[in-house]
Design a protein that fits this description.
Blueprint (H helix, E strand, L loop, with lengths): L8 H13 L6 H8 L3 H14 L11 H37 L5 H11 L4 H22 L16
GO molecular function, one term: DNA binding
Pfam families: HTH_Tnp_1
Protein name: Transposase
Length: about 160
């Protein structure tokens, strides 16, 4: 047998009950974080409780319970992949805005205007990144290529 658990039996039962009350709506890690243990520890406790209650292991489960969990896990995996892609895309647009605002042109003018409005550096770069996203989205929506506007005459006459 393994070593003695540092957690009292009652604590483990309560943690398992919290997970079961969630009805599959929360992950092991989410419930485990609430009670202060790791997700793997909680998963192990739930499996042990199932074996003691005669419910069998996951390998023994069939039907809707297993299929429902599989669907839930696939949806969660899809959501996490999308979140990672969103994070990378946001980073690409941030770097794009940062690099274009360093050179003369419409992007730098927009950045300087935002700074003059009182936005901090990061806020102004994020505003520029958002504008670049909006322009790209309009290009896709309207199925047009980007045509920069002609430079406006300098009011100072330089």
């Amino acid at each position: 047998m393994g070593r003695q658990s540092p957690y009292p039996e009652e604590f483990r039962k309560d943690a398992v009950a919290l997970y079961r009350v969630a009805g599959g709506g929360r992950t092991y890690a989410a419930v485990a974080a609430d009670v202060g243990v790791t997700g793997e520890t909680l998963r192990s406790w739930v499996r042990q409780a199932d074996e003691l209650a005669g419910r069998g292991t996951r390998a023994d489960q069939t039907g809707e319970g297993r299929d429902g969990e599989l669907v839930r896990l696939r949806e969660e995996n899809k959501r996490l992949r999308k979140a990672e892609a969103d994070r990378r895309l946001r980073w690409v647009f941030y770097l794009s805005a940062q690099s274009t605002m360093m050179y003369p042109g419409a992007s730098r003018d927009f950045y300087l205007r935002k700074r003059a409005e009182g936005l901090r550096y990061v806020q102004a770069v994020l505003a520029l990144a958002r504008r670049r996203v909006d322009v790209l989205w309009a290009m896709f929506r309207d199925q047009r290529i980007y045509v920069p506007a002609p430079p406006s005459p300098d009011p100072a006459g330089r």
